[in-house]
Design goal:
Cytidine Deaminase, domain 2; globular; 5-stranded mixed sheet; 392 residues; alpha/beta; 6-stranded mixed sheet
Length: 392
């Protein structure tokens, strides 16, 4: 089959809609369940490339959680600490497979953005991963295969309409790609560059030490950025992206947005947040929303006028700005990637506030000296990759 008709395009008024192979070869995918739409396939194909490259770069199973053609999270399958299991709401699932751990991390980094995501998995979906996906609000999943029990679990989602796509892991697209805008065809070579440790060799700061775990995190950030709508910046730590700033017009806004998300990820690990007592009937998504308000500037929304009684068993104490800053000051060992050069040192100043100690960026700004000087002020090790990663 070389063509698949879709219900509609990006919006219901955009008809007709289809995906097809121009060279009359078969599509490299098989829809095992559901009816994926235009945006679902955009998320699926971008996400699949991301996790395939992450596994190739790190040798570990990888997962990503996509929303509107950018990742909300991406990760490799490192074991989870007890704290991460709690904040990702998976501490009741028993032992997790490496692939399930990767998805827990990808989903858990920014759970609000991941709500209703499209999932991409680098490996055959196992039962452990399927059980986790089963209870999350998600539009669909793409993987190179599914264990029989896992497939049956996933087919039961959304009253049997959950989108399940199987992709040929050996499929290699044509080296030249095309797309149309306003009836005009654009042509370019695919961005087939391989991102690996060699890209981190040119360390331009006084601190030259980038340990192996930080190199893995930098690879995660760079590969994630390769499939994130630009401008984009990604913070990573412990085998996962923890804050992604996508589609911003200025570099500092990318850095601030991603940094805020990274801060929220770390604030969720504060004992004051972990110990919040929710009423039993509150669902995970509502807990995520309440936590986001509680750790943000809108915390009074969940505490004022008795609103807390609909969420918490006990009224939480106010999480003051000073307490949050004190906790964030313990955030260390974070890596940061950027899809284009940093034009000013203000990006480094903001990154430092979120515990960034390692940076990978293309370099090439007329103010590189200022950026390097700012890194040196904080002892940050920064590599110039020489590689821009714009994605549109």
């Amino acid at each position: 089959m070389n063509e698949l008709e879709l219900k509609y395009g990006c919006n219901p008024n955009q008809k007709p809609s289809r995906i097809f192979m121009e060279n009359n070869t078969d599509l490299p995918i098989e829809v095992l369940n559901g009816r994926p739409g235009y945006i679902n396939f955009m998320d699926a194909f971008n996400g699949w490339q991301l996790v395939k490259e992450l596994k190739a770069a790190t040798g570990m199973p990888a997962a990503t959680s996509f929303k509107h053609v950018s990742p909300a999270g991406a990760a490799i399958g490192l074991p989870l600490s007890d704290t991460l299991k709690k904040i990702y709401w998976v501490d009741d699932l028993g032992e997790l497979s490496p692939l399930a751990s990767a998805y827990a991390r990808a989903r858990g980094a920014d759970r609000m953005s991941s709500y209703g995501d499209f999932i991409s998995l680098s490996d055959v979906c196992d039962t452990s991963t399927a059980k986790m996906i089963q209870r999350e609000v998600s539009d669909g999943v793409i993987a190179p295969g599914y264990e029989p029990e896992a497939l049956e679990i996933l087919k039961s989602k959304r009253k049997g309409t959950y989108n399940i796509i199987k992709i040929d892991p050996d499929y290699v697209p044509e080296p030249i790609e095309h797309k149309q805008v306003f009836g005009i065809t654009f042509e370019q070579g695919r961005n087939s560059v391989v991102i690996d440790n060699d890209m981190l060799a040119n360390v331009v700061t006084e601190n030259k030490n980038i340990p192996d775990n930080a190199k893995n995190d930098l690879l995660i950030s760079l590969i994630t950025l390769k499939y994130t709508q630009s401008n984009s910046v990604a913070y990573a730590c412990g085998g996962q992206a923890i804050g992604i700033g996508a589609g911003q017009q200025s570099r500092i806004h990318c850095t601030r947005l991603a940094g805020t998300k990274a801060d929220n990820w770390y604030l969720r690990q504060c004992p004051k947040v972990i110990e919040l007592q929710f009423i039993d009937s509150i669902k995970r998504a509502d807990r995520d929303n309440a936590i986001d308000l509680y750790i943000g500037e809108d915390y009074m929304d969940v505490l004022a006028d008795g609103a807390w009684q609909n969420i918490f068993k006990v009224k939480p104490e106010v999480f003051t700005r000073e307490e949050k800053r004190e906790w964030l000051n313990t955030m260390k060992g974070v890596s940061l990637g950027s899809d284009a050069f940093f034009p000013f040192g203000d990006n480094i100043e903001r990154a430092h506030k979120s515990g960034v100690e390692y940076i990978a960026q293309p370099g090439g700004s007329i103010r590189d000296d200022n950026v390097i000087e700012t890194c040196n002020k904080y002892g940050i090790a920064m590599a110039f990759t020489g590689l821009r990663l714009f994605h549109h």
